[in-house]
Design goal:
The protein has 214 residues and is mainly α. The chain has helices at 2-26, 33-36, 48-74, 78-105, 115-125, 129-157, 161-182, 204-213; strands at 39-41, 44-46. α3 packs antiparallel against α6, α4 packs antiparallel against α7 (161-182) and α6 packs antiparallel against α7 (161-182).
């Protein structure tokens, strides 16, 4: 009886081992999501954040070039007309650079703006005169503020030399455009997102105590 039981247990163990081996062979190995988004290039590692920068800059140009041209016929203010022209021309140069860098690094780029940008384009295409001037200045200024944080974040931490140079150029363009838009006198800064709340400073007593132990 005991021999029979031991034999059955041995056979059961064999079946379990065989099943485990089969599962290991059939199931694909798990892939770390972070590793899947990372690739090596001649200019250094390329991350998901690096790729996202190229995509966002490309999409920024895809809506800012048309609305910059809208200003030529829809704006009332001569300054808005001029700012629209300068932003359109800058984005033509930046878009060419974006496509060149993306091709070199093997990054696929979109061919149309995102949903929000398409909505802003439709809004401006339906306006003219003072309403266009006001919305043009504020929509573009808010959008540049958002993309600035993306460009600056990648510039501060990227390990890829091509992306580093590209992000530096992007920062220069975004800063120039924010200044141009503010020069219209139409930007409502109260409507812009506030800067993030800084981390609280350590208590004074703690800081003094730390210095004593150094």
């Amino acid at each position: 009886m005991h021999r029979l039981l031991r034999g059955e247990l041995f056979m059961l163990g064999g079946f379990v081992l065989a099943a485990a081996v089969t599962i290991v062979l059939v199931m694909p190995p798990s892939i770390d999501p972070a590793a899947a988004q990372f690739s090596e290039t001649p200019s250094g590692p390329l991350t998901a954040a690096d790729r996202d920068l190229l995509v966002k800059v490309r999409q920024a140009g895809l809506w800012e070039m048309p609305v910059g041209d809208y200003a030529r016929t829809r704006a009332e203010s001569q300054r808005v007309k001029e700012v629209g022209r300068l932003i359109m021309e800058d984005h033509q140069k930046l878009d060419l650079l974006t496509r060149q860098v993306a091709k070199k690094l093997g990054v696929a780029l979109p061919d149309e703006p995102n949903a929000d940008q398409q909505r802003w384009m439709a809004q401006l295409a339906a306006e003219s005169g003072p309403a266009f001037d006001k919305d043009f200045a504020n929509l573009l200024r808010a959008a540049h503020g958002k993309v600035f944080t993306v460009v600056a974040g990648v510039r501060s931490g990227t390990r890829n030399s091509e992306i580093r140079k590209f992000a530096q150029e992007g920062i220069n363009y975004v800063m120039r455009h924010m200044t141009l838009l503010e020069s219209t006198g139409l930007v409502d800064h109260n409507q812009l997102p506030e800067a993030p709340t800084p981390s609280p400073a350590p208590p004074v007593a703690l800081a003094v105590e730390t210095r004593r132990h150094i």
